[in-house]
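Appendix C. Worked example: Terpene synthase
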Amino acid sequence: MHAAATHDRSSATDTYLSSSTKLWDGSLLSELVTPRHDLSKRVRPFPVQRNYFYAAAMHHSARWLREQMAMAPAEYQRLLREDVGGFVSWVYPDATAGQIRALSDFHFWAVRLDDLMDRKTAAATSLSACALLETVGAAELAPFDDFFGRMRALGMSRRCADRFTHALRLYGASSRQEVKAREGQARFGSVSGYITNRRTSAAMPVYYALAAWISRIDLPEELYQHPVVTRLENSCSDYSLLYNDAGSFIKERLAGRSEGTFVRLLSQQQGLSVQDTLYEIADMAAAAADDLEATSDIIDGCGLPVHQREQIHRYADALRKFVGGVNHWSNHTCRYLVGQPLVDTPATSRAGDVHHLRPAAIPHESHRPASMTGRPNDDRWRPWQ
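Step 2, the predicted output written as structure tokens:
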């Protein structure tokens, strides 16, 4: 599908290609395909642009990672190969040279912890990574203090810094819930319950604080609670986490994660096969992109003063760039590719927010395009038929 999406030829690839693992619906893991779509191909394309200072930032961040983070050489090379630091260059194209350097260092550190929390590690190791995040701002953490100090020196306000550190602590606490679900010690009872937790376990509030810093957005705290702003953030969160959950499932299953995944929860609750569930989640992601676009269009009708609407427009623009970057990076990184086929699916949802994850921002708001009249199990819109 995507010429730049090179498969990571590794032991995981060989395991996938030879896998006889049966999933809960009786299908074989090796028979699954991963749905992908391209948001730059929509009628109103999402913006995709790489930060101009990416190359220099990655050169410095590769050295920083080697010097600051203790890990095996193979792990170090994997993080570089997966372009983990480069993720921020796609989602924050407007960052300055100094900002993108600090962001790249931050993302290497955060993804390293995320791998410890999410991949096939002992529960104690995963929970230790959660605990480390939960102490951010209250204890000395050498790598964190290094890049966070540079962020502050580059103009991150105290209010923005507080939002950033608070969001990191929430990231650790919500990830702890996911670790418990993975270990069979807890469970998510509903789609909405899973999504609510995942909005923080996917670190989305962390990324929002960084977006506000980079785009020089200064919203008063009460304005973040406004229905329009909440829906903008939730649409961005839901796209990012759903597209990740659909794209990473096969790799995570090979890494030993079977319990606590959204794929399993939705499959069992909706009575769908694993493959149909992956398509359903990809469409749910597209519906979130639709809602981000539609909510951006109603900012001027939300009744707020013009200076506040200007700030929200800038924030919505930053979130659209973030989603465009998430989509592009996800389609091109080798992080989740283990030899499986990739299948094109629509970048615009044919069903809409059928799970009611994002309430209307304005009473009586009608945001769904006329073409979105299909039902989630209606064969007329299924992309694989």
